[in-house]
Design goal:
By secondary structure, this protein is α+β, with helices and mostly antiparallel strands. Among the domains are: 172 residues, 3-Layer(bba) Sandwich (FAD/NAD(P)-binding domain); 89 residues, D-Amino Acid Oxidase, subunit A, domain 2 (D-Amino Acid Oxidase, Chain A, domain 2); 69 residues, no CATH class. Helix content is 29%, strand content 23%. Strand 9 and strand 10 form a beta hairpin. The protein is globular, with a radius of gyration of 23 Å. The two termini are 38 Å apart. The mean pLDDT is 93.
Length: 516
């Protein structure tokens, strides 16, 4: 049972991490392993923001090598080329590290990159990009790039559905990895941080930051799940990893913090393609010359993402009709042979990328930036912007190195574990709740309810278990799942009904679920 927030009042921590997404979780895990006393809080559930709304891919970094409108952009701006190569190399390193340390949370897929006569990039440019990626990256998890023989275009999954096959100048193939699944990755890291002594609390909002003597910070907290309660804790260092809410957290200090965040919205639509396409994906550009993908998600596929400036409410992000129509048109343009229609969309999702604000980048700066805010009147406050899920494992060591420059650890170092929780739990022979799509059983849900910070049925099915990411998003088993944890969470019949109704409304609004 979660302790009341008041139990934290007056406690002092070495580091307070604000934001419990993948980056905050990585920081909390690595800092705890290094021997720091850590508190990590999130205003919502852990991994409920951009971490659960991403495109769910452990990228190889190919998109970083796209120069824009012309190769001359790299020729005339060597700095831009250096940054692109550095980001691509980091992506390949993180790809290797994650696949090797958490094989149960990654799935290898084969992607195709079609090249057209007169297209944005000539075949030699695309081939050079793949060679450069392979050279920049470590060899342990190879890119596996090659070319599909023209004689096999008509029989290759996805490729055989491409538009204008007579204009194809070639098709590259390469290995990409899909995160399976981002929410669980975050939860596993939070739980491992707790194992090593960290304190973690979801649904806990930072209401105020106040500088104290010695450049430490008083952090005022409020319970955000309607139960009430407040606390003030102290942190010698504050890591602001709140994603799109970073600026709001900084503004709570009343200091002169500059704008850090520029949000762009990424929406995806999910559908079922013919079975022979399972495990295969497509990479390319849409007609606005922005990256677009058709990615495999287990037996399904999703198309996206969009790239639109977002200035709305970050607590209410979903795919609009305009997003859906745009993606549907682009999917049909790329793969006209699929004949996709609106009624074939199973569900959608959308998130806001917390990119770095920079007037020189009209849609935000994508490179991960670390902001030491001492010069802004906020010493020992560090913010991290534009940290995508694919590079999150390197955030933890980077934050640990920065903290170590300011503060010695107060505890004995430990060894972090990157092994994810097994589903079903060892020794459990019960039938999965969604056979064929998820291994999760009612017994697994009970384990989550007892020790994984579950507050709602959405928390349970969408982030502790993967039932919320199956083809029907768990709609048919929502009541069964709620009953399985009711006694543990203290839910009476009325609360169970309320949770099931809230879950259905969440799916309808956030994911635009098709109820066929």
């Amino acid at each position: 049972m979660k302790l009341p927030l008041s139990a934290l009042d007056g406690r002092q921590f070495d580091v307070v991490v604000v934001g419990g997404g993948v980056n905050g979780a990585s920081a909390a895990q690595h800092l705890s392993a290094a021997g720091y006393d850590v508190l990590v809080v999130d205003k919502g559930d852990f991994a409920s923001g951009a971490s659960s709304r991403s495109s769910r891919v452990l990228h190889c970094g190919l998109r970083y090598l796209a120069p824009g409108n012309s190769m001359w952009e790299f020729v005339t701006s060597p700095k831009k080329l250096r940054v692109a190569c550095s980001m691509a190399r980091q992506a390949m390193i993180d790809r290797r590290d994650f696949v090797q340390s958490s094989p149960e949370r990654s799935r290898r897929t084969t992607f195709f990159y079609p090249m057209y006569h007169g297209g944005t990039y000539a075949p030699w440019q695309v081939k050079m990009a793949f060679r450069l990626l392979a050279w920049l990256g470590p060899a342990e998890v190879p890119l596996g790039s090659g070319q599909v023989p023209p004689s096999e275009f008509a029989s290759t999954p996805l490729v055989k559905y491409l538009r204008e096959p007579e204009r194809l100048s070639g098709v590259m193939s390469f290995h990409e990895y899909v995160f399976d699944w981002p929410e669980r990755i975050t939860i596993d890291e939070i739980l491992d941080a707790e194992r090593m002594g960290a304190t973690a609390r979801n649904y806990t909002r930072v209401t105020h930051l106040a500088q104290e003597q010695g450049n430490s910070w008083a952090v005022a907290l409020a319970d955000a799940n309607g139960k009430g309660g407040t606390a003030v804790v102290r942190g010698k260092i504050v890591l602001n990893m709140a994603g799109v809410w970073i600026d709001r957290v900084n503004q709570s200090a009343g200091a002169g913090a500059k704008r850090k965040i520029f949000g762009t919205k990424g929406a995806n639509i999910l559908f079922r393609l013919p079975p022979e396409n399972a495990g295969f994906g497509l990479a390319g550009l849409n007609r606005e010359k922005e990256p677009m993908y058709v990615r495999p998600w287990r037996s399904l596929h999703y198309c996206g993402p969009t790239e639109t400036v977002f200035e709305g409410d970050p607590d209410d992000v979903h795919a609009t009709d305009d997003d859906i129509e745009f993606l549907l048109e682009e999917a049909n343009y790329a793969l006209p042979g699929m004949k996709l229609t609106r009624d074939k969309i199973i569900y959608t999702w959308a998130g806001v990328r917390p990119l770095t604000y920079d007037p020189a980048f009209p849609k935000g700066k994508r490179s991960r930036d670390v902001h030491d805010q001492g010069a802004e009147g906020m010493p020992n406050v560090i913010s991290v912007t534009a940290g995508p899920i694919m590079t999150h494992r390197s955030v933890g060591p980077e934050m640990t190195a920065m903290v170590r420059q300011r503060l010695a650890p107060s505890r004995t170092p430990q060894v972090p574990s990157f092994k994810g929780r097994e589903f079903p739990a060892p020794g459990v022979n019960a039938e999965p709740l969604v056979p064929g799509e998820s291994a999760v059983t009612a017994a697994d849900l009970a384990v989550s309810a007892r020790g994984e910070h579950v507050e709602t049925l959405v928390d349970l099915l969408c982030r502790r278990a993967d039932i919320g990411w199956t083809s029907k998003m768990g709609m048919g088993v929502a009541r069964q799942a709620a009953d399985a944890v009711a006694a543990i969470l203290g839910w009476d019949d009325a609360r169970v009904a309320q949770e099931v109704d809230a879950y259905q409304r969440y799916l309808d609004h956030t994911h635009r679920v098709r109820r066929a």
